[in-house]
Amino acid sequence: MASYRYPKVAASEITPRSVWLDRRRFLAGVGTAAALPLIGGGVAHAAALKTTPGPFNIDEEPTAKSDVTSYNNFYEFGTGKGDPSANSGDFQPEPWTLEVDGLVGKPQKFDLDSLHAFPLEDRTYRMRCVEAWSMVIPWVGFPLAALLDRVEPLGSAKYVAFETVMRPEEMPGQRGLFQPLEWPYVEGLRLDEARHPLTILSVGLYGETLPKQNGAPVRLVVPWKYGFKGIKSIVRMSLVEEEPVTSWSRLAPQEYGFYANVNPEVDHPRWSQASETRVGEGGFFNAARRPTLPFNGYGEEVASLYAGMDLRANY
Amino acid sequence: MAQVQAKSAQGRTVQAKSWNWRPASIWALYALGFVPAVWYFYLGATGQIAGNAVKEFEHLLGIWALRFLIATLTVTPLRDLAGINLLRYRRALGLLAFWYVLMHFLTYMVLDQNLNLATILADIAKRPFITIGMACLVLLIPLAATSNAWSIRRLGPNWQRLHKLSYLIVLGGATHFAMSVKVVTAEPFIYLLLAFVLVGYRALRPRVMRWKKAQRLAASTR
Predict the structure, then answer these.
(1) Between A and B, how many residue pairs show a Cβ–Cβ distance under 8 A?
(2) In chain B, which end has fewer C-beta atoms inside a 10 angstrom radius, N or C?
(3) Is the pLDDT of residue A276 over 60?
(4) How far is residue B81's CA from residue B161's CA, in Å, rounded to a whole number?
(5) CATH 3.90.420.10: does it fit domain A11-306?
(6) Closest by Cα among B206, B222, B218 to B80
(7) pLDDT at B165
(8) Residues A271, A275, A276, A281, CA torsion sign
């Protein structure tokens, strides 16, 4: 006779410790959210995160939160810039499992609690989209290297392959006719790029958990590369020996390469990459373009990773 | 309505007094046609377009230009095939298309590229989708300039010939849009399809007209 088993509640479904510790402020936040019902899909979920100031913060005016959370490229929710914030209501970023496997000594699954248990830092970075606009975003996250240390990559591992969640029932861009990309979205980094201290896994922005449209609950941020390298809503990371396939270079290899380092010298075939529009700067009539910097201004930190490489051929 | 009244007992006097709504409706079309541009300009100028406001405004003007081009070329098949005569609105639709293309280009030139002529010229020369877009704007200029009764009289049959450029322009405009996007979605595909169907209809049109004439003859001799 089978004995009764009480339903097992996943740790991730229990109130996160950070929220419990901060419950008074959380409740105040809930009160405000109730008073201002549903401004955009993601806001209702936002919870404050405990962070410490991290390194590499740039001294530039952060882009308004309203722009950061309403002007997004996240094709799983549609190709329009407003689609991710408008169409992500059904998406459930909790509970979540990020699986790390491949050429590692200790393959592991990370739930939200274990991701939030890494020491979270504020990292204000420039974000340069391949479409020639840019933002300054105060991310919350931790170095990807810290997570890689836990899984102990084998000596044969040369690259990290990333994969976004595949949930057509929650992500309208993944269903129907005319899907712009092959799903799931995949990205990759060389292992030394992945281990670089600038590279972070982000779980939040502006001090709160990531809105759905920005890649909740966990995404990659590689500030010296074009924004599309920053894969969102990651469910899997595999350590591999060969250069992994990446979504955009699979779609249009002549336009998007594996490296995708920000480079004002190498134009996109259809537009110049020499300058960029900083979103929100100068308003409508004086949206001054600023010159795009090599490696998005992080050359001092990362240029040595590519010593001896032809960056025109490896775009 | 004017026709109904013309048949009434008072005859001509009533018709003369009845208000002719046709010119007013054309002006209303112009007014309505500029609403998207004015509205989005207002939103942009007051900081209500999220993200890269200038680019969004620029794209919006381009899309509306394409819509008006397609509407202009729909007037003839609509009359041939559905018996709906909107010929009196065709000039307004075509001119709206021209103004939207011009505003689209000016937004790119002034608000987006800050009048950086070197970059603009390099873009036009180097990037095929911009070259095509620019060619469409240039080709639209003589069409807009001859969109008046005087030119029609003056040019005679050449006017018709000149305005066939609109077929090339709608194909170019839809191609320009399709080439500018990062991924193929339904939207540019639909515009390309509409452009091809509308231009393709012109090739079939003599046959359609012959068939309609034969039908009419058959009906009258029956």
Answers:
(1) 73
(2) C
(3) yes
(4) 23
(5) yes
(6) B206
(7) 97
(8) negative
Is A215 within 8 Å of A171 (Cβ atoms)?
A: no
Residue/partner pairs of A116-120 with CB below 8 Å, 24 or more apart: A116/A16, A116/A17, A116/A18, A116/A49, A116/A203, A118/A142, A118/A146, A118/A147, A118/A201, A119/A52, A119/A146, A120/A49, A120/A50, A120/A51, A120/A52, A120/A203, A120/A204
Average pLDDT over residues B144-166: 96
> B9 or B133: whose pLDDT is higher?
B133
- Residues of B in Cβ contact (< 8 Å) with A131: 52, 55, 182
The alpha-carbon gap from B95 to the nearest alpha carbon of chain A, in Å, equals 26
Minimal CA separation from B23 to chain A, in Å: 36
The model's pLDDT over B122-141, given as tens digits with 9 standing for 90+, comes to: 999 999 999 999 999 999 99
The two tokens of residue B107 are 């937004």
CA dist B36 to B72, B109, B127, Å?
Answer: 17, 20, 28
Nearest Cα residue to A232 out of A64, A42, A52, A65: A42
Contact present, A279 and A135 (Cβ < 8 Å): yes
Residue owning tokens 């510790």 = A21
Residue to test with chain A: of B38, B41, B52, most A Cβ within 10 A? B52
What's the burial of A177, exposed, middle or buried (CB within 10 Å: 0-12/13-18/19+)?
Answer: exposed
How many residues in chain B?
222
Say yes or no for a CB contact (<8 Å) between A272 and B119.
Answer: yes
pLDDT tens profile A101-135: 999 999 999 999 999 999 999 999 999 999 999 99
Residue of A nearest to B180 (CA): A270
Mean pLDDT in chain B? 91
B contacts of A180 (beta carbons < 8 Å):
182-185
Coil vs helix vs strand at A111: strand
Q: Yes or no: say if A279 and A133 are a contact pair by the CB < 8 Å rule.
A: yes
- In B, which residues are within 8 Å of A274 by CB distance? 119
User: Which SS3 state, helix, strand or coil, does residue A222 take?
Assistant: coil
Distance from CA of A200 to the nearest CA of B (A): 24
Residue A294: cis peptide before it, omega within 30 degrees of 0: no
